[in-house]
Amino acid sequence: MIRAIIFLLLYNYLIPITASNNTLIITQVTDDSPLTNTAKDIIHTAYKKLGINIHFLRLPAERSLVLTNQSVTDGELFRIDNINLAYPNLIKVPTPYLVAEHMAFSKTKQFTVKGWESVKPYRICFRIGYKVAEHNTRGFNIVLVNTNQQALHMLNSNRVDIAILNRLIGLNSIQSLGFQDIKMLTPPLQTTPLFHYLHKKHEKLAPAVNCAVREVKNIKLSDYCIDVLNKFNH
């Protein structure tokens, strides 16, 4: 019954996609940005090498995990390591193909970031489903919103002191919103590799996807991203 209800809620999205049995639905939880577009390019090219069509479906972060875990959708564009511990029906494609730099952004505060404890004294905002931020700010004064843009609006209106976003997504969103007073604090709060995930029903496909991702990522990534990513491969 729950699965049927979910399908009805996503009817307008899924009907044109599921018309082909050879199309996988891969969810993305961030708006298009340099990071997201690079990820989509890598994953799309990898599946194309395998002769598989994919469709990217934009969903809220937490809902995306629930739907993929329930096999309503087929995979996650990118997630942090070990997300499958909380969502056991997900299989990690083992090659990390992007790196996320988790940054603190502020309008009124200026300080050198020294890990997550350095933002504990402040009012913090980030989007629901941002697992790295959720895990590292337990007990902090946090405000949760639905999107990265909402977090930046909260920050720009001085309703919070710090917004936490991925570096590239944050900088891109600030520019598109025209917020000139919001600055990125450095260094990163944390840097983590990102992985593609599939529902376990595609377990036999995962090794081939992994080989294709490994081949494609070194062609598609910038030199900077490769240098950072290599830290996690050695």
UniProtKB/TrEMBL annotation:
Gene3D superfamilies xrefs: Periplasmic binding protein-like II
Protein name: Transporter substrate-binding domain-containing protein
Species, as recorded: Spartinivicinus poritis
